[in-house]
Specification:
The chain has 2 helices and 5 strands. With 117 residues, it is mainly β.
Length: 117
């Protein structure tokens, strides 16, 4: 994971349907693959409900591995993740940006019910 990215264990997880519009695949300092992407998504609630917006997102580690065949320009995928605010690091040329960090694929309703039983 990028040093400039903070993951918050108490962040609320959201399910989003993303249509990828721009994808960059790279490797971090340890040689692990990740994806940075822009994607269109439909806003479900709030003042922009019903609007399609373009968001910036990232997938690292096991989330990237689970979705790497799906993270392709033009593809649509349903993902689970959280909103994050990346800290600015002016010294390294990194600006602060709000991003959607993918944690994986949402479980089917049946899997959730079985796990709760």
């Amino acid at each position: 994971m990028n040093d400039a990215t903070q993951t918050r264990s108490n962040s609320k997880l959201y399910t989003r349907t993303l249509t990828f519009t721009d994808v960059t695949i790279g490797t971090d300092k340890r040689g692990l693959p990740y994806a940075n992407f822009k994607a269109d998504t439909l806003v479900k609630s709030g003042p922009k409900a019903g609007e399609t917006i373009n968001i910036f997102g990232q997938a690292f580690g096991s989330a990237y591995e689970a979705l790497k065949s799906e993270i392709v320009v033009g593809n649509t995928a349903k993902v689970l993740g959280f909103q994050d605010q990346r800290k600015a690091d002016e010294e390294n040329g990194i600006s602060g940006i709000r991003s959607f960090v993918v944690r994986g694929v949402p479980k089917a309703k049946e899997e959730v019910e079985q796990a709760a039983a």
